[in-house]
Specification:
The protein has 144 residues and is mostly helical. It contains 5 helices and no strands.
């Protein structure tokens, strides 16, 4: 991402970069704990790992919303919240679904909604930092 204009708030940018680094660390930790949970040898161990994943997920959500809260346009922030709600609304549908074909369709819809959510987050961050946003959602193992 190349700069499109001079950054007017370098201190804010430093803070946002620090938050993004923290977000990347939390995301990596969630991935690690998810792998550990699938390898858990007993129900107590799996439960404890799930509790930690839930804590990290809450922390991740708060951090994302803190970063999004830096965007100056309230409509952009609200649209982002609505996308998150749309994704959350799939949870009960998926849990109740028993038809494999319907489940595949729900998974496709969730994947598309998550891709849109990621892209919107990246556009918001780009706007905050004063850089050109990506054309589509960018995913990488190394965020920086």
């Amino acid at each position: 991402m190349a700069d499109t204009k001079a950054n007017k708030a370098p201190e804010q940018n430093k803070e946002v970069f620090a938050q993004l680094r923290q977000l990347a660390e939390i995301s990596r930790s969630i991935e690690q704990h998810t792998m550990m949970q699938s390898a858990a040898t007993n129900i107590v161990q799996a439960g404890e790992i799930k509790r930690r994943i839930d804590e990290l997920t809450e922390k991740q959500d708060r951090l994302v919303m803190t970063i999004v809260g830096n965007h100056p346009d309230p409509q952009v922030r609200e649209n982002f919240r609505k996308l998150g709600k749309k994704i959350e609304d799939y949870r009960p549908k998926i849990k109740q679904c028993e038809d494999p074909e319907e489940l595949r369709q729900l998974k496709k819809e969730v994947d598309e909604a998550v891709e849109e959510w990621i892209y919107n987050f990246q556009v918001i961050v780009s706007s905050i930092l004063g850089v050109t946003p990506p054309d589509k959602a960018v995913q990488s193992d190394k965020p920086f």
